[in-house]
Amino acid sequence: MDQKTEIALFRYRIICEVLNGNRKNRSQHFRELAKREYTVPGKQEEVKYSWRTFKKWLFLYNRYGFDGLLPSFRVDKNKSRKISKTLQEAIMSELEDNNPKTVSNFYRQLLRKELITPEMFTEATLRNFLKRKKISFTKDERKARKSFEMPHINMLWTADFMHGPYLTVGRKKKKTYLCVIIDDYSRMLVGAGFFFEESSLSLQITLKEAVLTYGVPNKFYCDNGKVFVSGYIHLVCAKIGTALIHSKPYDSSSRGKIERVIRTIRLMFLPNITISSEYTLEKLNTDLKSWITGEYQQRVHSSTKQKPIDRYIEDLTNVKIREISRLEADHYFYHTIYRTVRNDCTINFKNKAYEVPAKYIGRKVEIRYPLDNPKDLRLFDDNKQVARLHPLDKHFNAQNTISYKEEPTDV
Questions:
Q1: Where are the alpha helices (DSSP H) in 157-266?
Q2: Which is deepest, 2, 217, 249, 307, by most CB within 10 Å?
Q3: What's the pLDDT tens digit per position in 177-194?
Q4: Where does the pLDDT of residue 76 fall: very low under 50, low under 70, confident under 90, or very high at 90 and above?
Q5: Is residue 177 helix, strand or coil?
Q6: C-alpha dihedral sign at 72, 76, 78, 81
Q7: CATH classification of 157-326, choosing from 3.30.420.10, 3.10.20.810, 3.30.470.30, 3.30.70.890?
């Protein structure tokens, strides 16, 4: 007989008199037993118990039988304590639509779709849950892979998102997301920024700053997430002459370099920042920039055996960097909205009125603005910029007569 069974028998002997109905006042009987000391199997010293412990043993036996008296008996055995019933149903529904191949891929997929957060439970918890449900993934044959590296800088950039820390905004906590872009040859972090949204807009802002700083890449490599397959990023890449390439679904191994960079950020940057209620998104990005320029770019890379900054500068003599001006970038990296011009020659954008030439009254017009400057509104007609819009100034208008003739525009 094993020790657990011996302990269960010991507990049974204590409650058996109550089970047989020999004691009418159970609580009083257990209080009397609590005054004694007991020799417990596996323990050298005698032990005293609370009378409530005896009542608990009685409850467990009545409900679960002899197994309820076994040490470390869990009422919720084979049930997930961290994954709610509603969330379990959502996870099972997600599995019906696709085969993520591995638990790691599936965990990242749930995070990306915001069905869960890293604080809710870990990958190990999900793995145990799927194991209890007897769910296994179909694995394809292991593909033969070869290590590769572009021969020069700016031939290939790779991008991805990472879940960042929570920041206090007003009275609420908001989650941040880090967009990262690396150069394949030098391993330079050419683009990186924290945002409150994992969106196409965040990606384009990061890419725009990278292009203005380091030039236009030949190829832009990313996964199949909804952020990377939006029409906007396809349009931007087409305009700047960059080939947009997507990896195969759930093939994280093909993005090993960017995954390694993200791991480095998690291990070497995030633990060294102190987040308080006053810590802002701007401060987070300032600290990130300082870490990139002061540490990451200056550390010898384990694969290239060179500092990323040195490797990038060294190769500048071998390639011709395709540069674009900020004005050109504003025309490539823009967001479009449509508004109907009101009778007072204005449109409304983000709760603010902007003046539009009078000839557009009643018409639905196209308004574009640079991604990183939503206050710089520009009116387009037949795909040509015809005016820059300015905020409504009622006091100025009170002193000037409105003209419905062709107006000079600030282009």
A1: 200-214, 231-240, 256-264
A2: 217
A3: 999 999 999 999 999 999
A4: very low
A5: strand
A6: negative
A7: 3.30.420.10
